[in-house]
From TrEMBL:
Pathway: Cofactor biosynthesis; biotin biosynthesis; biotin from 7,8-diaminononanoate: step 1/2. One of its GO terms (molecular function) is dethiobiotin synthase activity. This is ATP-dependent dethiobiotin synthetase BioD. Belongs to the dethiobiotin synthetase family. GO terms for biological process: biotin biosynthetic process. SUPFAM superfamilies: P-loop containing nucleoside triphosphate hydrolases. Keywords: ATP-binding, Biotin biosynthesis, Cytoplasm, Ligase, Magnesium, Metal-binding, Nucleotide-binding. It comes from Kocuria tytonis. It is found in: Cytoplasm. Its main location: cytoplasm.
Amino acid sequence: MNNPLDGIFESLGRTVLVTGTDTDVGKTYATAALAVAGWFAGRRRIAVYKPQQTGIRGDDPGDVHDVARLVRAAGVPSEALTTAEGQRLTEPMAPPPAAAIDGVELLSISTHVAKIVELQESHDLVLVEGSGGVLVELDGERHTIADLAAAVQSGLPAEGDTDTTVRTVLVARPDLGTLNHTLLSLEALLHRGVRVAGVVLGSWPGDPDRLQVSNREYLADLPTIHGQRIPLLGAVPQGWGHESR
Ligand SMILES: Nc1ncnc2c1ncn2[C@@H]1O[C@H](COP(=O)(O)OP(=O)(O)OP(=O)(O)O)[C@@H](O)[C@H]1O
Ligand SMILES: [Mg+2]
């Protein structure tokens, strides 16, 4: 199986937060492709953490299990990957209402930060997949993935040794509406001081139409936002992870 995000680890550090312009944009696929790219870039101990896994009953497989399956299908040995979830919630809703329905308290942002720091100590790549989009609340105190990214960033050296830096990747669709959603999400992330490595298209069709090609071209040459030019890092081909089965 090919490695769609080959080479992108030059711009990524030890911890990568994966958020999206929406739910269902391909964050889980992009997280798996990042893990595979990390493996082929020499990262040998890779962790995938999902702070809030919603819409799951009992022991059903969650996003981290999908990542594990996709990563294995790409030829990465299963021992290389650690999967971890913060909390499971039954309803396919944002964490606060889902927790209310389950009658549980949401884990705090500091609990997630502690888990990520623990994973950083024993892994050379930690991938964190958020819930839904950029401003979805993760806890009971209105903190979002942007706050989690900022908190993880503040606990680690800002620049210098790329091995210890934290970067966020925004996963987007190639379809109608994506330009507005991508620009809004980047504005929100950069406004909050989140260090964004770039945009990844979660599912790029084998036979893209004119609109999708035009959107991809635009995303590859985004206007400056908060003084930064955010690059398009790559695209996960539609059907990636299924081709060898
Ligand atoms: N590259 C791809 N190839 C094939 N199918 C894909 C790809 N990317 C996404 N999909 C399809 O789109 C669905 C949503 O993708 P994915 O689960 O990665 O989105 P998500 O952003 O992680 O969603 P959530 O917000 O629920 O975590 C998947 O179930 C899968 O069927
Ligand atoms: Mg997902």
